[in-house]
Amino acid sequence: MNVMDEYGVMVAMRSIRSLCVYCGSREGVDPAYRQAAAALGRGLAQRGISLVYGAGGIGLMNVVADAVIAAGGVSIGVIPRHLAALELKHHGLTETVLVDTMHERKQLMFERSDAFAVLPGGYGTLDELFEILTWKMLDLHTKPVFLVNAAGYWNPLVHLIDQVIGQGFADPAARHLLRVVPSVDALFEALARLTPARSTAQQAHLA
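Below the sequence we write its predicted structure tokens.
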């Protein structure tokens, strides 16, 4: 089943069972970033959505994972062996997958996820975001990608995307590869609109 998003683009409804979260290995200077990461982790656990992320035990990555674990949720981390050896990995995850390269990490995170959310972060976060957007632009996937604009952190990036399009280096349709949401609450509202509602019979079966 398809639905119309806020841009007037038809998107496929899908059951969001796992969410890949890209975010910083540092916490940043604004407490709002940490608050958003913690709220995202709690919200995932409360909704029964598994966290898929880079298995980090530092920065916002650690905050998200700790919040998922504290709320009884499922946390899946994927990390290259050379980073795990530097003791950067989280040691309390539901599942940790060790891989050989960063490329394998990103591929496996993609395969294990139904959608993507991007919190504030640095070069690594931007690398992950633009790779998953490029794959989408090339029709390699149709999974939703959300930019969580906590405390307006991503405003300059949104302006840069407008600049890229305005200067003719991308089609206007490229703007719709990425959905910008102002908060974690708005993210969960958007995810809920993508998830097919269960029928009464299905609800009774699950009760």
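The CA atoms of residues 163 and 169 lie 9 Å apart.
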